[in-house]
Amino acid sequence: MSRLKRAGRVLPAASCTLLEELINADKLALPCIAVERGFQSSSSGSTAGAGWRSASLLGAGAALLAAALLSPSPAAAKKELAILPGSKPPASALPKTAAAESAAPPKQPQQQKDDKGRPIYTREEVAKHKTPKDRVWVTYKDGVYDITEFVEMHPGGASKILLAAGGSVEPFWALYQQHRKAEVLQILEPYRIGSLEGGAAAAAEAAAAGADPYASDPARHPALIPRSQRPFNGETPGSLLAANPITPNDIFYIRNHLPVPHVDEKSYKLKVEGEGTRTLDLSLEELKTRFRKHNVTATVQCSGNRRNEMSRIKQVKGLEWDQGAIGTAVWGGVRLRDVLLAAGLSEDDPLVRHIHFEGFDRDPASGEVYGASIPIRKALSYGGDVLLAYEMNGQPLSADHGAPLRVIVPGVTGARSVKWLRRIVASPAESGSHWQQRDYKSFSPCVDWDSVDWGAAPAIQEPPVTSAICEPAPGTTLSAADGEVTVRGYAWSGGGRGIVRVDVSADGGASWRPARLLPPPPGAPQEHGAYAGAWAWTLWEITLPLPQPQGPGGPLPATVDLAVKAVDSSYNSQPDSVAGIWNLRGVVNNAWHRVSLPLEP
Ligand SMILES: Nc1nc2c(c(=O)[nH]1)N[C@H]1C(S)=C(S)[C@@H](COP(=O)(O)O)O[C@H]1N2
Ligand SMILES: [Mo]
């Protein structure tokens, strides 16, 4: 109550409207600015879908190439290619064609040629070719390929291959190891238009100047949609998210506030100290041998997931995440509880209320380290499954995901799962970290950056039930002639509450149909809607009929307005709109997720 009063006192009633002007840039320059340097300007256009940058890249027909490049059986993909109505022989895509020539970069005085007389292109030139309009180029080893014709041959659908447009296909092939590259290469070869400058070795030339604190950041998978470069933040494209209940490590979203610290695994020590403990210094080896190993299948989601929808209502400060700042992995490590008990912490120590985590990452300007805390009840709970993880899906943690050791707090917002864990502190008080005290909190829609009282709201721990549509991608045009559309996505709730139901609408929420819940990932409770320990998301899918014209040439709605909402095991559901939960930092957006797609006859 006192919190509400406090907020009420500082706010003139007139400011309590969502129709206020956008917060101006000066007002945004608040405490978090140091850690949000890289954040990209928003796409706060008023039209639905304005923020969906990558979606428009997905031209019709890409699915075929995806099939060819990603399918387990390239032979089958070739067959598919052969039976396509109106498909041209691949020879039409050779560089001789007028189309390919006209789209070539402006002729340089002396175009460099490779040993076969083919033009040599730089990576920058290749990167300009990401859409059918600009021609779609990809590279494989030192080859440059114009695959535009191939992409356009297919009649439609969202696809994965255009994610590689303008760059190398190799990281995508590595993601889907099941396909045999030699045969897929045969499909690719006729589309070769030239060679890459410096050959395959050019890829290694990336390392930048020494003064840059981000210079030693690791390479990232090109499928990640970057939301900022320094620090790096990137999300998983929807089509890849919905494809697998376990998110492959390489495309798991990355949320870094600071430069990636490189921690030597051999000399690594975890310090455990604070109220009611005797200090421990544990090497990675000691952690692995002195404590029992556990695997926990858990979803991690950033509090800012789906923030871009908030910015469409009124600008918020933060990374413009779409629905991909979420992922699910099987985390391997030791229980935090076991380590705390080994440090002598007593379960009924009245002085210990919070467990703090501190990372090795440090703000190069202020020296501040990343930190967060969780309540003691969660930290010590046997069923709470809080893990000190050194493995992600059976692999050692990568540099971006917190090597060599990170915290995984299942059912709790991502910010508390501290990466590159340096220190654990038992304490009577919450962490004083910026990210615990002055960020990752939500307020009334009327609170702005002038009036915000950070002490007035609790730090986000368990997030509310949420869900999102991952496929079809925004920008996809639906065809009534197809009769139906298949919609896929995820649903997840905080606190280990399982998903009992997911409702999907194709008319903006006027009518609903329950989606089919897909089998939970390995290690998660196998029944849907578990009351506890349901740390992992539920993927779902549904095929819905598309509106049909009444008689030939009859009228059709211009769009199909998809919406999704989920229900968790406490029968919590989601609010229908973003406006009522808008908050200045753009966190915990769990409104119905809506995707409007144009409908053609
Ligand atoms: N040390 C440290 N831990 C951190 C962060 C960070 O910047 N530094 N980011 C946090 C946030 S906000 C999120 S959402 C998750 C993201 O984990 P991921 O990058 O492995 O997906 O890590 C959390 N742990
Ligand atoms: Mo986050």
Automatic annotation (TrEMBL):
Taxonomy, superkingdom: Eukaryota
EC number(s) stated in the UniProt entry for this protein: 1.8.3.1
InterPro entries: Cyt_B5-like_heme/steroid-bd, Cyt_B5-like_heme/steroid_sf, Cyt_B5_heme-BS, Ig_E-set, MoCF_OxRdtse_dimer, Mopterin_OxRdtase_euk, OxRdtase_Mopterin-bd_dom, OxRdtase_Mopterin-bd_sf
Annotated Cytochrome b5 heme-binding domain residues: 118-197
Biased segments, Low complexity type: 90-111
Listed name of the protein: sulfite oxidase
Keywords from the UniProt entry: Heme, Iron, Metal-binding, Mitochondrion, Molybdenum, Oxidoreductase
Location of this chain's protein in the cell: Mitochondrion intermembrane space
CC annotations in GO: mitochondrial intermembrane space
Subunit: Homodimer.
Pathway this chain belongs to: Energy metabolism; sulfur metabolism
Molecular function as annotated in GO: heme binding; molybdenum ion binding; molybdopterin cofactor binding; sulfite oxidase activity
PANTHER family: SULFITE OXIDASE, MITOCHONDRIAL (PTHR19372:SF7), SULFITE REDUCTASE (PTHR19372)
Essential cofactor(s): heme b; Mo-molybdopterin
One Pfam assignment: Mo-co_dimer
Stretches the record annotates as Disordered: 90-120
Listed GO biological process terms: sulfur compound metabolic process
